[in-house]
Specification:
Layout (H helix, E strand, L loop, with lengths): L1 H12 L11 H52 L4 H19 L8 H5 L2 H16 L3 H9 L1 H10 L22 E2 L5 E5 L2 E5 L4 E2 L14 E2 L1
Antiparallel strand pairs: 1-4, 2-3, 2-5
């Protein structure tokens, strides 16, 4: 009986059918109500799936258009094929996946939150990343409000392979944490890898007008 009831219920929200029919007016009224509810539920599910698929298509179409405009611009400006290929590869491997995710700048409601709530959100987003450094781990436990303000100033960025982040003599602008991949610090022909979970350019926090002594790739 339980399987029969389940079978009958499924036929009310799908195109399926079975040989059980209402035998009296109350049963028929119940069947009509269930059928209407099934239509509403089924329509809602189909609508949600259709909306999700259309959103994905819209994202893909927007990127394809941007990519086409980029390639056309390179052709018109006679940008070398080698450089154009590097830019396109970077866009395909880094920018395109990013467009499928919701970026912080796209969440307009975050900017409308009270400062206290927004600070808590930013702390939640970044504290695990920067607390690998003992200073920020101590700040979080001792002066949480300061840690919140620091997290509000953090930004994420991506760097393509073989890109140079900075060169010797360049003015330092920020401290960096590596979340994915690795960097290579080169100074006096000595090479030092910087791996995921590590940080660099720490002196910029307490030294004014500090310049880089090596290059980071």
């Amino acid at each position: 009986q339980y399987l029969t009831s389940l079978h009958w219920s499924l036929t009310q929200i799908t195109p399926g059918s079975m040989d059980i029919q209402p035998q009296n007016i109350p049963e028929r009224a119940f069947a009509v109500v269930v059928l209407i509810a099934g239509i509403i539920v089924f329509s809602s599910i189909v609508s949600s799936i259709t909306s999700a698929v259309n959103n994905l298509k819209s994202i893909g179409a927007r990127y394809d258009k941007q990519r086409w405009v980029l390639r056309r611009f390179f052709r018109e400006q006679q940008v070398s094929h080698e450089l154009a290929s590097r830019v396109t590869r970077y866009a395909d491997s880094i920018i395109r996946p990013q467009q499928k995710r919701v970026g912080r700048q796209e969440v307009e409601l975050l900017g409308l939150l009270p400062a206290s709530l927004r600070n808590e959100v930013m702390l939640e987003l970044f504290h695990k990343l920067i607390e690998v450094h003992p200073l920020f781990l101590s700040l979080h436990s001792e002066i949480k409000t300061v840690m919140q303000k620091i997290c509000c100033k953090l930004e994420t960025d991506n760097f393509p392979k073989d890109d140079v982040l900075f060169i010797p003599g360049e003015m330092a602008q920020a401290m960096y944490w590596v979340t994915h991949g690795s960097f290579l610090y080169i100074m006096n022909q000595a090479e030092t890898p910087v791996e995921t979970g590590e940080w660099f350019c720490e002196p910029v926090l307490w030294v004014t007008e500090w310049t880089h002594k090596g290059s980071m790739e």
